[in-house]
Amino acid sequence: MSAAGSQFLKAQGSALEESSSALTARVRGTVHVIGAGLLGASVGLGLRDRGVDVTLEDQSPTTVALAADYGAGRLRTAQDPEPSLVVVATPPDVTADVVARALASYPSAVVTDVASVKLAPYLELQRRGLDLTNYVGSHPMAGRERGGAIMARADLFVARPWVICRDHETPAEALALVESVALDLGATLLEMTPEEHDRSVGLVSHLPQVVSSLLAARLLSATEQAIGLAGGGLRDTTRIASSDPELWVQILGANREPVVELLDAFAQDLASFTDALRDPAQTGARRRIADLLSSGNSGVARIPGKHGSSERFSTIQVLIDDTPGQLGRLLTDLGELGINMEDLRLEHSPGAQIGFAEIAVLPEVAERAVTDLVELGWRTL
């Protein structure tokens, strides 16, 4: 991306943060965040933007100091009053331990965790016989390929689902406080049981991670010539393969039963597809291949679009010179043409000073968008 394009997108992000900061926070009192990595620091940044007092804690002094330097909150002191809410944002293998300590240290506070697995920590806390009245498990469906406070964003949770897992003993005021944090951070609330959550994320998050990583691993033995042919399809399917392996070992281990069940079903589909492709001339082989591919069409059509809708968009590919200012000019032209950009993806052409901007627009404006952009001198595919 050109320098001007980067500056343009940063400006858009700053405008969003400034708009968000003007909102009045629903959360009252101090929020204490334990775990100052990507999610914890992002929670802190988002709440601080709304004027909420946020204190930070992490087992690593460097990590918590870095998150504080980025503005995610301040280090908690012995003189601070008990927080109204504690957000535990630690790795899954220590979540139950940290939640238990938080419940003991802050008996009047509501405690939530944002771990990506919900059943295992809940069952472990139950096994210890703890009073879980003030505990509400939750999980924001947001993240980035790289972690740490340096990658944190105040708008990380905007328009993303935030799952709340409560039981029949959860007081209304405790539930309302956790929901207030999610809403203050711009998320969309969903309520599930821990079992429903873990089965759901196994399908939409954990299985894709395994498939993406295993596919990317096949590239290790590929020649440089083959890698040079890589296009959008490979990038799309391997994007999340750069995620932290250590963290994913914990996540997959904690949610192994749903993931194993999904992998077994996936392996059966793969075996059926492979068998048909091995001898396409056999009776019914081509139909089996077509049916499996068609099922993929039907499945992808169910993936929610912008703001949680199931609406599908048309894609326009625009060639842009890899020089400063080109992306900014394209976005400005789209705005002046009155064309709302629903999504944007950039791809560079290896060995050439040219890139591709893949722009998603509503189907009813796609034809006009192409015509108008060509009239302005842009090249489209």
TrEMBL record:
Q: Which UniProt keywords apply?
A: Amino-acid biosynthesis, Aromatic amino acid biosynthesis, NAD, Oxidoreductase, Tyrosine biosynthesis
Q: A single GO molecular function, which one? A: NAD+ binding
Q: Domain Prephenate/arogenate dehydrogenase, which positions? A: 29-311
EC numbers on record: 1.3.1.12
Q: Name one GO biological process term.
A: tyrosine biosynthetic process
Top-level class of the enzyme under EC nomenclature: oxidoreductase
Q: Domain ACT, which positions?
A: 315-381
Q: Which InterPro entries match?
A: 6-PGluconate_DH-like_C_sf, ACT-like_dom_sf, ACT_dom, NAD(P)-bd_dom_sf, PDH_C, PDH_N, Preph/Arog_dehydrog, Prephen_DH
Pathway linked to the protein: Amino-acid biosynthesis; L-tyrosine biosynthesis; (4-hydroxyphenyl)pyruvate from prephenate (NAD(+) route): step 1/1
- Kindly give the Pfam families that the UniProt entry links to this protein: PDH_C, PDH_N
Q: Reaction catalysed?
A: prephenate + NAD(+) = 3-(4-hydroxyphenyl)pyruvate + CO2 + NADH
The UniProt similarity line reads: Belongs to the prephenate/arogenate dehydrogenase family.
**This chain belongs to which protein, by name?**
Prephenate dehydrogenase
Q: Which organism is it from?
A: Leucobacter insecticola
